[in-house]
Design a protein that fits this description.
Layout lengths: L1 E6 L3 E6 L4 E5 L6 E6 L2 E6 L7 E2 L5 E2 L5 H11 L16 H10 L8 E2 H7 L6 H9 L12 E2 L12 H11 L9
Parallel strand pairs: 3-7, 8-9
Antiparallel strand pairs: 1-2, 1-6, 3-4, 4-5
Helix pairs in contact: 3-4
Amino acid sequence: MATVARVCGDAFVAWGGVTMKYTYMKSPIGRLLLAGDEEGLHLIGFPEGKMVIEPAADWVESRRTFDEAIRQLEAYFAGERREFDLPLLPQGTPFQLKVWARLREIPYGETISYGELAARLGNPKASRAVGMANGRNPLPIVVPCHRVIGSSGKLTGFGGGLPTKEALLGLERGELRLVLR
């Protein structure tokens, strides 16, 4: 039986044969949905923006499954953690998985352009495809898609909304201290 999460009201993500568990955590950018299983974290959902995710009817609420993820995310928001050490199980195409792996190589507090990310993947002309894959990242924050910006240096699309992207970058640059809301 496939498990389906409703995303943005019109797109869906499916996990076949997995009993998906979920919980919510408070964060300085709003309530985050964490979903996964005993093997790892499958997704993080924002409370606002174009990547709002709702648990499917057959998901099971389980905060204990996410204790370590919550601890690491809280440390990140407190400015005490720069990298995450969590088992991650994103679902995507082979190209998306390559993009998401490269995102994890962008150092804390730094940004690169979509074109630079495409070049790092070996195809400098693939910036649009990289942008599409970046926008489908199911594990924002942990897989830091917020660190990718437009070639002009301007902030561009982000699943949690541009104010959230700006807040995350400000936190990482030491320009902003985020407080729980």
